[in-house]
Amino acid sequence: MRFDGIDMAALERDLIALRREFHRYPESGWTEFRTTARIITELEKLGLSVRFGPSIHVREKMHGLPSDEVLEECWQRAMRETDRPELVEAMRGGYTGCITEIEGALPGPTVGIRVDIDCNDVEEADDPKHIPAAEGFRSTHKNCMHACGHDAHTAIGIGTARLLCACREKLRGKVILVFQPGEEGLRGAASLTATGAFSGCDYFFGGHVGLLRDKRVGMVAASGHGFLSSTKLDVTFRGVPSHAGASPELGKNALAAAATAVLNLLAIPRHSAGASRVNIGTLQAGTGRNVIPGEAAMTLETRGGSREINEYMEAAARRVLQAAAEMYDCGCEIRFMGSAGDIVCDKPLVARVIELLGTVDGVDEVLPDVDFGGGEDVTTMMRDVQEHGGQVTELVFCMALKAPHHNNYFDVDERVIGLAARVFATLALEVEKP
Ligand SMILES: [Zn+2]
Fold this sequence. Notes:
Layout: H1 8-24, H2 33-45, E1 50-52, H3 68-81, H4 85-89, E2 98-103, E3 106-116, H5 131-134, H6 150-166, E4 172-180, H7 189-193, E5 203-209, E6 219-221, E7 224-225, E8 229-238, E9 242-243, H8 254-265, E10 276-285, E11 291-292, E12 295-304, H9 307-327, E13 331-340, H10 347-357, E14 365-367, E15 370-371, H11 378-387, E16 391-397, H12 415-430
Parallel strand pairs: 3-4, 3-5, 5-16, 6-14, 7-15
Antiparallel strand pairs: 1-2, 2-4, 6-16, 8-12, 8-13, 9-11, 10-12
The structure holds zinc ion (ZN).
């Protein structure tokens, strides 16, 4: 009854086609130029005005930007692949993502909905057993793949906009719909949030497909807990290269400093108050067998079951890094690349979401609260909303997982796309009882 007069089958076909297109042209954090232009085109078709480019970002808060060379290379690629070069032009330098507002005909609350649009740095499986390869929409970008379902999220966001635009006369208040870049690495949310774009939201929703094992389409979680706070750091140790046989005493061994740091990072005492983690994901050092290594680079992350625990882990990590560098008389540069906090979903809102989920076509099992068990930088937006008196929750749209997230065989059960769009649109239409 809610979406009477809308050809849902046709909408779902369109959204699946869009998802497959986004899947073919995946772009990683801060390089979603073509993707953003395509989203804008779809939103403009609905008569919506879309904000994008530098005005929706705060440059100092654009964490974990790729190098200028990578940004430029990806931008050039997007210029070749887009049919809207004038839009891509305006995003040069990494100003990706966009925000639109859908005004209802009736007075009411402001509802924020966020979807993320970036891909992973993964080379997609080229195997007929993998549906995107078999059906011709495998990634065309080397080492880029939508392996977390953000292609589906992007289509879900567009579907939500279509449904809401078709129901404007019933919509109370307004909906702020944000297509966020750079979720992977927890990089994108802070910049969009710092403009104050979401501070006025009375309600704010995020959502993710998949995540939970042994589930299927039709099951939807109304809220999550166990979001880990996390900080991402890039570290460079700088020493002095020297001849390993003739003059080792003139060298300063950056590899030794980095290796010392690794072992001691892993030895940081864990915290009794909750989960505490550290991982050194990459380490590269040295130039040749007989050269004292002059430089070493590592990427690492800390996590905590609360903001305080992560702060403890991050402070200990920074201390270890500096001390290890000092031990070998090397320099140590630590670059902050991204972070996200924990969040507690608001109980009154979650109760309302549980009620409403039961009324959405295609939802046949509601999970009240699930363990999220990872980081999500939507929490940065959500904290801002809560600090300004609004309520938030993060949903999970379940589906069977053929492969884990971030795996090169990851795939989406496309039936989740239309369903999730109906869920978001229903929440926006009815979160506040008339
Ligand atoms: Zn994801």
